[in-house]
């Protein structure tokens, strides 16, 4: 029976050897090649990169062989490379698209097939549907050419995209003040592609950079998965205390997302990080422009928008929605609840490296540690509290949707419900300006329940009511 390849919020992910096989990667690459041909890109260049998961370099070679077999020229990275660096390589090399073999923050058993457009950003949903429709049912329908032959014919060229990216970010941020600040910075690269990047960028000054989990290990010891949220970050937070570091930066497996730990070894949730990064751009750098946010991230951005008189646009979850909106409105910043942030002047894609550098620059410019930065942010917009619960689910999805729609609660967590929106999932507005969101994962068989509130003592009750509404025990 033919394995059906489905694209989620950011490409296709599957379990290695079960669904994510060399044949299915080849089929997926053929679907992408067909899409590019239909878009009029015959003979153009495409970037192919990969992460440090099991067999990623070989899956990437398979994708390159198929693209070459369809007449495309391929720039194939010569080593595991951060996703933001791959995304920028599309622009730097004048390519029309990219394939990135990575499952990002998924468990170690998975791998994935991400695609990017000519801007280095996520492809919108209508494009993803076209790619899916072009995937053949059999590997016998795939056009391919062996890697060695493709290299001999000049159809595949291996390259290192690092220098182009480094030159690109130099006008965006002055690294010297961070180097001279004398900070102790702990970096948890989660056994992923971010290894060595902050050490290389910030060496040569008084600041000390310490990296942990910085080797290739596809089983991701000391964490369930390379996702920069608790409990996966616990070992990194402890290392922050052990090394008396001023801050912890946590990169996910492909380095397009960032998490933050404060000087006390406490996790700073990703909604607060987004609020801080937006505040940094508006107040410290004096930038102005629209803010794009997914519906699952913080209302602190709306309050900042009012204070600084900049518009705020809300999208569905995933950069397939965020990236097109950023381009449409020339956004200053775009981001999502998962810790992915994109910036004007860069490609419209998540960049954990640049986001981490901006956070460090904010610390240096304001001469404040993470806890002090949060106090400053809350003095502007008030304290906000967030949490989420993820649960595997079985049974009929449509029945669960009917249950959620029929719930019609008057109160959630003791707070009056002010409305329900169904842009992407089911988001209940609350009287304090907070919210409860129930939505199904686009990459895994999971249901997610999220909330944000100005009442720290109501988070657990809001989530408990959300689980009950979703029919999850």
Polypeptide structure, described:
The structure is a single chain. This protein is α/β, with parallel strands linked by helices and 473 residues long. It folds into four domains: 12-165, Alpha-D-Glucose-1,6-Bisphosphate, subunit A, domain 3 (Alpha-D-Glucose-1,6-Bisphosphate, Chain A, domain 3); 182-266, Alpha-D-Glucose-1,6-Bisphosphate, Chain A, domain 3 (3-Layer(aba) Sandwich); 269-383, Alpha-D-Glucose-1,6-Bisphosphate, Chain A, domain 3; 385-470, TATA-Binding Protein (2-Layer Sandwich), CATH 3.30.310. It has 16 helices and 21 strands. It has helices spanning 22-38, 56-69, 83-92, 125-133, 147-152, 162-169, 176-180, 197-202, 234-242, 270-284, 300-308, 319-329, 352-366, 370-381, 397-407, 459-470, and strands at 12-15, 45-50, 73-77, 97-101, 110-116, 156-159, 184-188, 208-212, 247-251, 258-261, 267-268, 291-294, 312-315, 333-335, 341-343, 385-392, 411-412, 415-421, 426-430, 435-440, 446-453. The strands form four sheets. Strands 1-5-4-2-3-6 form a six-stranded mixed sheet, with helices on both faces. A hairpin with a 6-residue loop joins strand 9 and strand 10. It is globular, with a radius of gyration of 22 Å. The model has no long low-confidence stretch (mean pLDDT 96).
């Amino acid at each position: 029976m033919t394995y059906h390849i489905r694209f989620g919020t950011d490409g296709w992910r599957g379990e290695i050897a079960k669904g994510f096989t060399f044949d299915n990667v080849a089929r997926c690459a053929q679907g992408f090649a067909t899409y590019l041909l239909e878009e009029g890109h015959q003979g153009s260049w495409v970037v192919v990169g990969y992460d440090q998961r099991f067999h990623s370099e070989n899956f990437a070679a398979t994708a390159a062989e198929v693209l070459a077999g369809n007449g495309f020229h391929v720039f194939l990275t010569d080593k595991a490379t951060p996703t933001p660096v791959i995304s920028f390589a599309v622009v730097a090399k004048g390519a029309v698209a990219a394939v990135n073999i990575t499952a990002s923050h998924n468990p170690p058993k998975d791998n994935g097939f991400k695609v990017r457009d000519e801007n280095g950003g996520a492809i919108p949903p209508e494009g993803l549907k076209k790619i899916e429709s072009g995937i053949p049912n059999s590997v016998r329908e795939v056009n391919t050419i062996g890697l060695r032959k493709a290299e001999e014919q000049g159809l595949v060229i291996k390259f290192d995209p690092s220098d182009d990216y480094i030159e690109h970010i130099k006008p965006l941020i002055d690294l010297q003040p961070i180097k001279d600040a004398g900070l102790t910075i702990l970096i948890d690269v989660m056994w992923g592609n971010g290894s060595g990047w902050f050490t290389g960028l910030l060496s040569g000054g008084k600041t000390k950079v310490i990296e942990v989990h910085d080797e290739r290990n596809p089983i991701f010891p000391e964490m369930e998965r390379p996702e920069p949220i608790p409990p996966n970050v616990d070992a990194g937070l402890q290392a922050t205390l052990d090394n008396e570091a001023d801050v912890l930066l946590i990169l996910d497996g492909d380095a397009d997302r960032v998490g933050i730990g404060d000087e006390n070894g406490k996790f700073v949730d990703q909604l607060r990080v987004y609020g801080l990064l937006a505040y940094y751009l508006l107040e410290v750098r004096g930038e102005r422009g629209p803010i794009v946010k997914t519906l699952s991230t913080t209302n602190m951005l709306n309050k900042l928008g009012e204070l600084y008189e900049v518009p705020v646009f809300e999208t569905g979850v995933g950069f397939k929605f965020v990236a097109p909106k950023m381009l449409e409105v020339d956004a200053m910043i775009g981001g999502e609840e998962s810790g992915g942030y994109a910036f004007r002047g860069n490609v419209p894609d998540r960049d954990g490296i640049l986001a981490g550098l901006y956070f460090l620059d904010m610390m240096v410019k304001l001469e404040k540690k993470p806890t002090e930065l949060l106090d400053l942010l809350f003095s502007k917009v008030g304290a906000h509290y967030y949490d989420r619960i993820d649960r595997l689910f079985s049974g009929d999805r449509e029945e669960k949707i009917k249950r959620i729609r029929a719930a019609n609660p008057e109160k959630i967590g003791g707070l009056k419900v002010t409305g329900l929106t169904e842009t992407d999932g089911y988001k209940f507005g609350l009287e304090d300006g907070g919210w409860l969101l129930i939505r199904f994962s686009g990459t895994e068989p999971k249901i997610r329940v999220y909330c944000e509130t100005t009442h720290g003592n109501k988070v657990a009750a809001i989530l408990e009511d959300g689980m009950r509404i979703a029919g999850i025990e």
